[in-house]
Amino acid sequence: MKIYLDGQLVSKEDAKISVFDHGFLYGDGVFEGIRVYNRRIFRLEAHVMRLYRSAKAIWLTPPHSQEEMAQIIRDTVRANELENGYIRAIISRGPGDLGLDPRKCPHPTVLVIADAIKLYPTEVYEHGMECITVATRRNRPDALSPAIKSLNYLNNILAKIECIRAGVPECVMLNDAGLVAECSGDNLFILHTDYRGRQELRTPPITAGNLEGITRDAVLQIAEEMGIRCAEVDVALFDVYSADEAFLTGTAAEVVPLTMLDSRKIGNGEPGEITKKLITRYRELTQNEGEPVF
Ligand code: PMP
């Protein structure tokens, strides 16, 4: 495995960063998780855009332009001959001293790992996933915005530990107002039917306190292309419990049917028809979109 680290491709053993890197000391940095499908990097430009927006939000100036960063990512995938897999791109504040002051970190660390991906078992896509609502609330946007994909993932990790202890793979996280924000590492969608039978695909707006997922965006796009009405509106737990269908979206997870939440069956407890169509369409999209990188 070859890892890109500050201008060089090095072996896994040689890919080492300083213990004074503020990414390590304070979670001070930003990152992206990106997929390679069929020798194509899925929505690379969107991921780099989000990485740079996150960097801007924490006053971190990356040493490369967005175009250069995209090229570094392509080069790393090529060097590893990775036809299908997962990319982790990180820009940390870089090495400094033991204080918080980022001015002591003049050189951000840039790191790209291209590796195999560990997926949920196929069983989850065929029969759905069970989740719980965790006690850990999603960070308040005015404290640490969930829109920033920062290296500070402790809020998500605490939620993940609650999932693990409850024996489920993912969870619903509520925001400060008690509305659905997102999952520990995925966005959430529901299919809602009103009393006049009109269906709408709903996902909480970014202002509910979540990461603006690239998969979320792709699913909104393909749902609209399929003629499904979509809305970014507040979602309460009641709406999820009473939804016809629900699913999670994320780069690693893709589209996962959510069939049970807090011991309540969603719909009939099986993956819904629209969810299954979106899974199929999303898979087609990831296999065929964009130019192969090598
Ligand atoms: N929310 C959180 C907290 C995440 O970490 C992620 C990424 N794994 C997502 C949502 C989904 O975003 P994306 O579709 O861009 O992977």
Strand content: 25-35%
Secondary-structure element string:
EEHEEHHEEHEHEEEEHEHEEEH
DSSP, total strands:
15
The termini sit apart by 17 Å
Q: CATH class of the largest domain, anyone? A: Alpha Beta
Principal-axes shape call: globular
CATH topology of the largest domain: D-amino Acid Aminotransferase, Chain A, domain 2
At the fourth level of CATH, the homologous superfamily of the largest domain is D-amino Acid Aminotransferase, subunit A, domain 2
What's the mean pLDDT score?
98
Bound molecules: 4'-deoxy-4'-aminopyridoxal-5'-phosphate
CATH architecture label name of the largest domain: Alpha-Beta Barrel
Q: Structural class of the secondary structure composition?
A: alpha+beta
Which stretches are low in confidence, meaning pLDDT under 50 for 5 or more residues running?
none
Question: What is the quaternary state of this protein?
Answer: single chain
Total number of distinct structural domains? 2
- CA-based gyration radius: 19 Å
What summary fits the major beta sheet? Answer: 9 strands, mixed
- List the total number of helices: 8
Q: What level of helicity do the residues show?
A: 25-40%
